[in-house]
Design goal:
This protein is of the alpha/beta class and 231 residues long. It has helices spanning 53-56, 130-153, 155-168, 179-212, 215-223; strands at residues 2-3, 35-42, 46-48, 75-96, 101-121, 171-175. Helices cover 37% and strands 26% of the residues. β4 and β5 (101-121) form a beta hairpin.
């Protein structure tokens, strides 16, 4: 019985280019470091029960395990953990009306991480049956592992956003007409750094999920309900 899946995606605001360098002259140094707010949100697992073994076999999974050549494992459950990341920024400005140029500073960054798990359980197992409950308990381990990992390492994205914004320093001076483009570039740079932090967390998530999906665990789940043969 093969029961595993992990899906990861991110929504980032802004474009990655062009790279902005702190001004070497013309703009005063920032008087304060940017404030960074981080918020983690999660929803209860959404459970679907409308796909049979064949339907679940169409899902690709990220975990692997060794098996004997004469063993056949069915996908009885799939867990998809969808992670969305959004970030926004507020800016401060100093404008020179003579040259019509602007100095820009990152004032605050908001990072919001949301986790939305979806658990698919094979319709071959009647709702409330032993195999349904055993499969659900296994999949819930995947969900809880995601929650623990994202909670434990989520602060890394806050730190990444803080580092990216602090390294920018004073941005400019540049013509007022470039203000929107400069804002988008800043958002892109911050997003690139957050994206790297997300990739690092994804690696930890995958390692922890793999510890759950072992041949021994699949054999345990398969044998947990002797009075309910697979069909």
């Amino acid at each position: 019985m093969k029961i595993a899946a992990l899906s990861l995606w991110a929504v980032l605001t802004g474009a990655p280019d062009p790279l902005i360098l702190a001004s070497t002259g013309g703009c005063a140094r920032p008087t304060a470091l940017p404030a960074v707010a981080y918020n983690f949100q999660s929803t209860p697992p959404q459970v679907t029960h409308n796909l049979d073994f064949q339907g679940l076999s169409q899902f690709s999974v990220d975990t692997v395990f060794a098996r004997h050549t004469n063993e056949v494992f069915l996908k009885a459950g799939i867990t998809q953990g969808f992670t969305k990341i959004n970030h926004s920024a507020a800016f401060r400005y100093q404008q020179d009306p003579v040259s019509n140029t602007v100095c820009m500073y990152v004032d605050k960054i908001d990072v919001v991480v949301s986790y939305e798990p979806v658990v698919h359980i094979a319709s071959n197992f009647p709702y409330g049956s032993c195999r349904f409950k055993t499969t659900w308990e296994h999949e819930l381990r995947h969900v809880n592992t995601d929650l623990i990992t994202l909670t434990e390492y989520g602060g890394n994205m806050k730190q990444a956003a803080a580092y990216a914004s602090q390294s920018l320093g004073a941005i400019g001076p540049f013509p007022v007409t470039q203000l929107e483009a400069q804002q988008q570039a800043v958002m892109g740079r911050i997003g690139t750094v957050i994206d790297k932090a997300l990739d690092d967390i994804g690696t930890v998530r995958m390692q922890r999920q793999q510890l759950i999906d072992t041949r021994e665990e699949y054999m345990r789940v398969s044998r947990a309900c002797p009075n309910e043969p697979l069909r």
